[in-house]
Amino acid sequence: MKTETRTKKQSPALSPALIGFAALGAYFAVLLVGSLLNGDKMSILAPKFIIYMNPLTYAIAWLLTAAALVAYGAISKPLVYRFTWIASFLYALRTAMAGGSYYLTFAMCGLVAVMTYACGKVLTNSAPDKKATQISKPLSPTAAKVGVAVLSALTGGGVLFLILSSYLSFTTSPTAGTSVYIQLLESLRSGFSFDTTLEFGESVSHMAAHISPIFLLYLPFYAVIPSPVTLLVLQVAAVYSAVIPLWLIARRRGLSPAVSLIPCALLCLFPAIWGGTVGSFHEYALLLPLLLWLIWAYESDRPILVWVFAALTLCLRETCAVHLFTLGLYWLITNRKAAGGLPSRRTRSLILMGVSAVYLITALIVLTYAGKGTLITRFENVTGVYATDFGTLIRELFCNPAIALYEMLTEAKLHYVLCMLLPLGLLPLLSHKKAGLVFLLPFLLLNLLSDFPYHFSLDYPYSFGVAALGLYLCVVTLCEYESRPDHAAVTKRAAVLALCFAALISGFRLADFGAYAEYTFTEKQEITALSDLLESVDDTASVSASGRLIPHLAARKEIYGLTHDADTEFVVLDLRSAWIPSAEKKYTVQYFEEKGYSVVQSVNGVGAVLQKK
Question: What is the pTM assigned to this prediction?
Answer without folding.
Answer: 0.79
